[in-house]
Amino acid sequence: MLSYLKEVIKVRVLIVGAGVSGLFIAYELAMKGVREVVVVDKSYPGSGASLRNVACFRSSFTSPEHVLLMKESIKKWLELKDRLNLDIEQSGYLWVARKPETLDTFRKLVSFYHSYEIPAKILNVDEVKGLVPKINSKIISGAMFDPTAGKMGILKNFVKIYLETKKAGVKIIPYTEVKKLITSNDRVVSVETSRGVLEADVYVVAAAGDSKRLLEPLGVHLPIKDVPRHPMITEPYAADYRLGLLIDWDTPGSPHITQTVHGGFILARDLEDIPEASLYSPRSDAFKNIVKPLAELLPFLKHLKIVRYWMGYYDMTPDHHPIYGPVDQYMNLFIAAGFSGHGMMLAPVTGEVISSWIIEGKPSIPVAQNLTLERFKTGKLVRELAVIG
């Protein structure tokens, strides 16, 4: 569709960013009857965080906004699993407590979750051992378990969503970098790309940390920082391990681990790092800091080789919630960015919320209105304490 062109191409909706959020927004628009939806990306689809994360999901957050949105997102993921044969497994999250007093925190959280019909529960040490036979039960006091959480096959699922989005009539144009958004009064009128000019009726910026760079020249400041993360994966191992994710709650940075369908264990931890650091700046201390606490909990990890280590970004906001919805200064500009590590799991509901906002003028899930950019001006931030996979 877009060559190194001289003419200007006009479409209905232009989405910047072909990650999982951008694809779901495009897909939902197309399914609701909007034609001429185009997604552009400076690289290939999924080249950002969408194919670099640990691919787990949960609704067991600590804010009503996250809980309500994620419950709907999980519902949508499971519907797509049945229809598209996606690789999704509700195998649970286990939040492990090393300290006895942590169980008091877990009890408060479980009470909160029950108010939203999330069947989380407290497990004693024997129950944890029954769920994870190889865990070192001598150093734990119990755990909190959310059976509705789980994991997914990231590459298989992304490819199927990509193909389904194209099948719905969406044009996806890779290797086309948006250089500049052109405005006139209170509207965006076009974008300059590395391959020509595109005009649209509506523009959606869903480009993770790059969203900040694109919108800053328009006088729109997004409080987003790209914070590096350092996942790694082991060789395959046939462990009696069924969990979606195990989280070491009491260790700073919440080390966490999941097993892929191929048997390798993905390990990660939120390490203090320099925001915006290059993805080509690996840390020599990452292995020790990530593996050590997890090997204390799961001693068999000491015998496994790390076969791959990579870096990715969490596009973090100050309150660890996404920025959704319209930009006040421009009547045809929308944002979906700043997911703070939860973009993959939120993607289906992101598509639903942004598409309904565009078509109907309001989000189909009212609580999403609490997550507009405006909250950073008014100080009405929405706090989230559980910022891990």
TrEMBL record:
Assigned GO CC terms: cytoplasm
Molecular-function annotations in GO: oxidoreductase activity
InterPro entries in UniProt: FAD-dep_OxRdtase, FAD/NAD-bd_sf
Keywords: Membrane, Oxidoreductase, Transmembrane, Transmembrane helix
Occurrences of domain FAD dependent oxidoreductase (ranges): 12-356
Keyword Transmembrane (UniProt): yes
Transmembrane segments annotated in the record for this chain: 12-30
Pfam families: DAO
Keyword Endoplasmic reticulum (UniProt): no
Gene3D superfamilies associated with the record: D-Amino Acid Oxidase, subunit A, domain 2 (3.30.9.10), FAD/NAD(P)-binding domain (3.50.50.60)
Protein known as: FAD dependent oxidoreductase domain-containing protein
